[in-house]
Amino acid sequence: MTLRDIASRAGISIGTVDRVLHNRGRVAEKTRKRVLGIIEKSGYQGNIFASNLANSGKRHKFCVVMPHLDQDSSYWRLIEDGLKAAAFDLKRYGVDIETRFFDRYSGVDFRRLYFGLDGRGHDGYFMAPVISDAAESCFRERPLIKPYAFFDCHVPGSAPVFYIGQDSFQGGMLGGKMLHLLVGDDADVVVTRMLPEGWHINDRVSGFRAYFEERPGARVREYDVDCRAGVKEVESVCRRMLEGGRVDGLFVTNANTHMFAYALERLCGAGKVKVVGYDLVSANRFFLENESISFVISQNPVMQAQKGLNLLCRHVLMREELELEYVVPLDLITKENLP
Amino acid sequence: MTLRDIASRAGISIGTVDRVLHNRGRVAEKTRKRVLGIIEKSGYQGNIFASNLANSGKRHKFCVVMPHLDQDSSYWRLIEDGLKAAAFDLKRYGVDIETRFFDRYSGVDFRRLYFGLDGRGHDGYFMAPVISDAAESCFRERPLIKPYAFFDCHVPGSAPVFYIGQDSFQGGMLGGKMLHLLVGDDADVVVTRMLPEGWHINDRVSGFRAYFEERPGARVREYDVDCRAGVKEVESVCRRMLEGGRVDGLFVTNANTHMFAYALERLCGAGKVKVVGYDLVSANRFFLENESISFVISQNPVMQAQKGLNLLCRHVLMREELELEYVVPLDLITKENLP
DNA sequence: ACCCGTTGCGTTATCGATAACACAATACCG
DNA sequence: CGGTATTGTGTTATCGATAACGCAACGGGT
């Protein structure tokens, strides 16, 4: 099936068919309908090679929107690694990647960035809309014109090409199980709820509680912690936690796990409280190696970013049909399988 | 950098450059050297789109060589899933995938299959050379002419484009750690050595022992098991094992884990002996769900096959430069993160 | 000297999609 | 009614690599 086939079936020339395909106008509505019908029926897919050859010289530009790299204990650096890998692969397809950062704790900053995306300079967006409410209102007020995909979290009511990310509830369950294994049946465990609240965090906490609800031997306590907290504040939370009763295990629901491991090392010695946490950022890696953190649950951010950006580009450039949702597997990392 | 640039720099026509690039002969040795020199210096990479467009109509065919799907507890079906996904992606690039199977326990069968690969019908091979000695002798006697890559295991002395697979020793260590967590410090654990011996199995056993060598509280026993054993034989091994002394945990070093879980359920009831094993085949999935198997280590066969085949094709079709080795991460699967 | 085979190299149609351009046929306006 | 926009459509050069074809130059055999 080629353009020429379509044209001859429709009794017109390839120029007109091309105009239909690219919405370049100047086509009679009747002709347009007919051509679209034939394309639909024949399952025409176009030839990527011819298309890209004809387009050579033209470069495509995609824009990644995400929090500053050093926020969330540099979790976003892991994402960046995946983006870099994807960008490298995509260079030969004439694709450039631009990254724009916002302050993860400032809805205002996100809005400023969002409404600066005019859609003219870019062929698509790959976005981590971690500030749920700001993102939701932005997309409601004025959705992006160009195709966009979400990673890390979703924005309800929007229509992205796809979403790629984790299953947070299951992650919490998994964290519960690992902590249970570490501390045994009769135990006191603590889970942190990070503030400001985000869906991920809440789902992780819920999953964790859900696991222990079926195991009445264990007692679960919960503490609020500000995400922006430094080592000092984390230490004071840990102190309160230890003063609040027995603590056998701690589940930290985001990448700041290393701060708690460090604080607990100082307050009651390494290994006293078993720690399970999130994300393989380099600080956590260190504490995994010295076993102050027993397990870390990883949502494979490198793969998530690489695969996601790749998919988005292939969708736009090669018109590949995609799934609506890609759930990345939960990786369970411990000293013995540190990559 | 285009063919035309190369040609003008060399003071000849594009036809001659193309003849050099594709070894089509009819080129003076002096000219050939000069062209190759310029290509080298300029880092010319060719234009995939133009190349594939010109080649359209021509289809590429790759051949996958691996054991019968139902061997190793249908482990190879997981591989096949990945292959199918890759084949689907690659169709639009004019790539066909043919799969040939051999008997995993018959060197003769492998040799027959290997020497039937004449290289004329195929553009490349993607192979799981699980019968180490047969594969090694085959490659020594007459290496494949077309590019080939290995998955699952390597053949020493051969020169594949790349190898994609797991780190078995680390897998054994990880298995040791998980079992340790499950059974505690003072315990008797058993590891199975599957026969006929293969590198993977031996490395897994070594990794497992290495983990417990640093933890003198635990006593490790080892039992040989024929890979071809059915449920009956596995049950008799388990009986011997239980009669041989206390058993708190069992590490099964291949996909047959479910057979042991089943046998132990019958012999001493579920949950009495903690089981850690390998591979997320459907039978193991069942026992993970009912918690007769606590953990399964997965080498992500679907991803391994998909990524590997994709890489090989891209190497051949688009002349992409590749790494020599791709180590796939070890996935730790338990009830709570079953995909 | 003639013919044929080989070697070395240049020329060009082809692959399929793209978009600029050309050119009718209407539509619209004063 | 003349003249300028606008609309609908066809034609064609272009992207870069491929490989068939053409042709000259030379070598060796009779």
Largest interface, C-beta within 8 A? A-B, 29 and 28 residues
Strand content of chain A: 15-25%
Q: Note the quaternary state here.
A: homodimer
CATH architecture of the largest domain in chain A: 3-Layer(aba) Sandwich
Which radius of gyration of chain A do the C-alpha atoms yield?
Answer: 24 Å
Biggest sheet, spatial arrangement of strands of chain A: 2-1-3-4-5-11
Helical coverage of chain A, percent range: 40-55%
Are there runs of chain A of 5+ residues with pLDDT below 50, and where?
Answer: none
Q: What overall form of chain A do the CA principal axes indicate?
A: elongated
Number of domains of chain A: 3
CATH superfamily of the largest domain in chain A: Response regulator
Q: And the CATH topology of the largest domain in chain A?
A: Rossmann fold
> Can you tell me the CATH class of the largest domain in chain A?
Alpha Beta
